[in-house]
Specification:
By secondary structure, this protein is an alpha+beta fold. It is built from 8 helices and 21 strands. The chain has a 6-stranded mixed sheet with strand order 6-7-8-3-9-10, with helices on both faces. Strands 11, 12, 13, 14, 20 and 21 form a 6-stranded antiparallel sheet that branches. The chain has a 5-stranded antiparallel sheet with strand order 15-19-16-17-18, with no helix packed on it. Helix 2 packs across helix 3, helix 2 runs parallel beside helix 4 and helix 3 packs across helix 4. It is globular and about 75 Å long.
Length: 376
């Protein structure tokens, strides 16, 4: 187990900066995830840690040891690839033992460690099968056992669950987290799947276009995103552009002038009157009521709208409402049986608490999408 540290790491491919001045620290025993869309630099960063790429600028450390020019096979890493990379002509036992044989580990120790690894991933009875005789989930477990059998200092996983169907993926990720906690191994995980990152991680680094946008716990990233990109990528958000009109003295609230009127929101001390900002509101924090009900006494923000579309999703209904300014607002209502079904064209009041409305300084993130809300 080691700490992994990246200091000012930049990697270029021609004119493209795939990773830009990345500063990351992964603690011993931590499950750390790099999350972002395709092309954001997360896999490049993982490959720099593994030693497949050398950074053009910056340093990579395992504990206090500089690793920039240390060969891959001398880093004591275990790696699981997206396609598992199993040898088709080797059975399960031979695939798992491969790394130990390359390290010239004795036969008895190899047998013991292979058995232990297969027991860990629940494949003890399948050691004679070949990859083509295994399901996708079983192949993934073989790849994981092969990575663990060498007793690595760091475990690196590059979208290892992306080829599995939804049910198997949910089962395997729970097993993966259990194993990581049991072995207390420093684990660095790459994914574009927000739910996967939230479920698995101790901390997450959200990346976009080579830049680390924010590093925090899953809960903080979801509840307190620092940029509009993070707010949008971590789930779904409604965005409203505005100008900071006033800073209240109570509960850290501010008032923002928007095209939908004056709205109250949670702000920070760094905000200044007259500053351009974006308000972020999660769909699950929006209450939808028939138009005309007075909400002022409840201290709620409100916007008038008209139902445009509804999607039944089992445990919830997601409505889309268009405001008088043509902006689209998404509203998630849990337990559909308990709510009146709203019809297309029906007028509604969209209400949400100031404490559920987050202010994001415009210069600290990308501009909000031209569509009010983008789904992730």
């Amino acid at each position: 187990m080691v700490n992994v540290r990246l200091v000012g790491v930049t990697k270029r491919f021609g004119k493209l900066e795939a990773v830009r001045s990345a500063n990351l620290q992964m603690s011993k025993g931590e499950f750390f995830t790099m999350l972002g869309p395709s092309g954001c630099g997360k896999t490049t960063t993982l490959r720099i840690i593994a030693g497949f790429y050398t950074p053009d600028e910056g340093e990579v450390y395992f504990d206090d040891r500089l690793m920039n020019y240390v060969a891959v096979w001398k880093r004591n890493i275990g790696m699981v690839f997206q396609n598992y990379a199993l040898w088709p002509h080797m059975n399960v036992e031979e695939n798992v033992a491969y790394g130990l044989r390359m390290r010239k580990i004795g036969k008895k120790e190899t047998e013991d460690r292979v058995k232990k690894s297969l027991d860990l991933v629940g494949l003890a009875t399948l050691e004679r099968r070949y990859p083509t005789q295994l399901s996708g989930g079983q192949q993934q477990r073989v790849a994981l056992a092969r990575a663990l059998v060498i007793e690595p200092s760091v475990l690196l996983l590059d979208e290892p669950l992306s080829n599995l169907d939804a049910k198997i993926r949910a089962s395997v990720r729970s097993e993966l987290r259990r194993l990581q906690q049991q072995l207390k191994i420093t684990t660095i995980y790459v994914t574009h799947d927000q739910e996967e990152a939230l479920v698995l991680s101790d901390r997450i680094a959200v990346m976009d276009r080579g830049l680390v946008q924010q590093i925090s716990t899953p809960r903080e990233l979801y509840e307190k995103p620092e940029t509009s990109f993070v707010a949008d990528f971590m789930g779904t958000s409604n965005f409203i552009k505005g100008t900071l009109a006033a800073i209240r003295q109570d509960r850290g609230l501010v008032e923002v002038e928007t095209s939908s009127g004056l709205l109250a929101a949670l702000g920070e001390e760094r905000l200044r009157k007259g500053e351009k900002v974006i308000l972020s509101v999660r769909p699950e924090d929006v209450i939808m009521l028939e138009q005309g009900r007075d909400l002022a006494e409840q201290g709620l923000n409100r916007i008038e709208g008209q139902i445009k579309f509804a999607s039944y999703m089992g445990s919830l209904i997601r409505y889309e409402a268009v405001t008088k300014n043509g902006e689209i607002f998404k509203i998630d209502l849990r337990n559909p049986r308990e709510h009146k079904v709203m019809q297309q064209g029906e007028h509604v009041t969209l209400a949400f608490k100031p404490t559920a409305t987050l202010v994001i300084p415009l210069e600290h993130g990308e501009q909000a999408s031209s569509e009010n809300t983008r789904s992730s």
